[in-house]
Design goal:
It is a single chain. The chain is an all-beta fold. The chain has strands at residues 2-13, 17-30, 39-43, 49-56, 63-67, 73-77. The chain has one domain. It is built from no helices and six strands. The protein is elongated. 0% of the residues are buried.
């Protein structure tokens, strides 16, 4: 099974916040076992998001920490090659 989600939009960044503004969103599903249930580019409800951001461990390449409005944290680690 293949499931894809596509989002188009823009972002704005301030010294404390990352704002994601969505223009459109769609999903596609392809399952060879159930092709009758497949769909391509089905429109989905768009959702705007805002996060506080923090960059830590800069000497190690950096860890970007995004915190959403529910105080859930998402960490992205830079891996230097």
């Amino acid at each position: 099974m293949l499931f894809e989600t596509y989002h188009a939009g823009e972002f704005s960044l301030t010294s404390r916040a990352l704002r994601l503004t969505a223009f459109r969103s769609s999903t596609s599903r392809r399952d060879p076992d159930f092709p009758g249930d497949d769909y391509i580019d089905r429109p989905e409800r768009v959702k705007n998001s805002e996060f506080n951001w923090e960059l830590t461990d800069k000497e190690q390449g950096g860890i970007l920490i995004l915190t959403d409005t529910d105080r859930q944290k998402i960490r992205y680690t830079c891996i230097l090659k």
